[in-house]
Amino acid sequence: MEDLYSVYLSSTGICTDTRNIIDGCLFVALKGERFDANELVADALKGGAAHVLTSNITFKDNKQCTVVADTLVALQELATYHRQHLRIPVIGITGTNGKTTTKELTAAVLSKKYRVLATKGNLNNHIGVPLTLLSINDKEHDIAVVEMGASHPGEIKQLSGFSKPDSGLITNVGIAHTEGFGSFEGVKATKRELYEQLKSTSGKVFINISNTNLVGMLDNYSNIFSYTTDSQIANISGKVSGPSELLSFKWEHNGESHEVNTHLTGAYNLENALAAASVGTYYGVSASDICAAIAEYEPTNGRSQIIQTDRNRVIMDAYNANPTSMMASVKNFASLEGDNKVVVLGAMRELGSIETEMHRNLLAALVENNITKAYLVGPEFSPLKSEFSSFTYVNSANELTAEMQSLNKAYILVKGSHSNRLDKLKDLL
């Protein structure tokens, strides 16, 4: 590992795609379900890679190559080894909903004082986390924020084992990926693995003490920085200023009150903002800088974006969806003032035996909240056609072209996961 680490340190960084080679990089040849970069070693070297990590034994005598049994395992071990040599704080973030938004808000807040390296996009899995860690340079970065996602038991234990965070938080726990986790208790057990990692090193835990699930998962661990959305006593408390399309809130710390107007839609984003404020406060960012960072942050990539088109006003939240986030979005949308309300919902996946029940609950929420015009995308909704016959059912977003083009002066919520491809509807509205 020391030899490979020396190669990494002398490289210009890690690359895993021959189409995006950086001169002087360490190319890691990964094997996926539909590709095997170990067949492209020569291309990587020709493209400018200084060294290649591969399992292709054809290159065992090539001085520009290191041959291993499993390149993914080697990548993970290299990232873990690099983490052990870093001398900057690492903050770990996971949760069922809001982890990417919280990561981005936290990075924005910390950037007011520090040089920050944060997970890019959604690179939060067994490949993305090692790549994130290997992009940290403690001569260029003062602090790092690492997002961790999971869909099966044990994944957060693995990812937090790689990243060994000094502090961290779980945004929340909800019903998601139950096909992989087995149950809600399985979700909680896996997310709890971040707490267990932090406990093992006496790390700082940022926790929303208004969330009884999180409090129960943490047990009696005392090295915490608390925040709350209710009247409990905590390091930081916050309240939504009033019902509006864009989140405005007040937060308090040490008896001082601060108000923030954000570009985020949904009262549910209050918890994400308070988490970022808590991390910033703990790491010495001033309250004025925290407020400015949160106010300046604008969501991208179809995450709670508000878009005013020539014909309609659209809340575009088409990147991630599960029963908890779907219900929160629908209820928030129902609470907002507006005429000619329309919802476009993508089907939820990886729910296993509770799939139909969760979709039924969602459609019942539409009825309860007097939302009468809904377009439901995905075959998972089909079993409910007879129960909720007034809604429109299609198998894919491609079937909604005419319907979307016909909407005019409507207030539209588009909510689904990236796999639903609802983002392509934006240009039709």
In short:
The protein is α/β, with parallel strands linked by helices and 429 residues long. It is built from 14 helices and 19 strands. The protein has helices at residues 2-10, 41-47, 71-85, 99-110, 128-134, 155-163, 178-181, 184-200, 212-218, 269-282, 287-296, 323-335, 355-368, 401-406; strands at 14-15, 26-28, 51-54, 65-67, 90-94, 116-118, 143-147, 167-170, 204-208, 224-228, 236-240, 246-253, 256-265, 305-308, 313-317, 341-346, 374-377, 392-394, 411-415.
Q: Quick one: overall form?
A: globular
Helical element count?
Answer: 14
How far apart the termini lie comes to 53 Å
Q: Biggest β-sheet: count, sense, barrel? A: 9 strands, mixed
Overall pLDDT confidence: 94
Helical residues, percent: 25-40%
The helix-and-strand class reads alpha/beta
Give, in spatial order, the strands making up the sheet with the most strands: 6-7-5-8-9-10-11-12-13
The total beta strand count reads: 19
Q: Poorly predicted ranges (pLDDT <50, ≥5 residues)?
A: none
Q: Could you tell me the strand content as a percent range? A: 15-25%
Rg, nearest Å: 23 Å
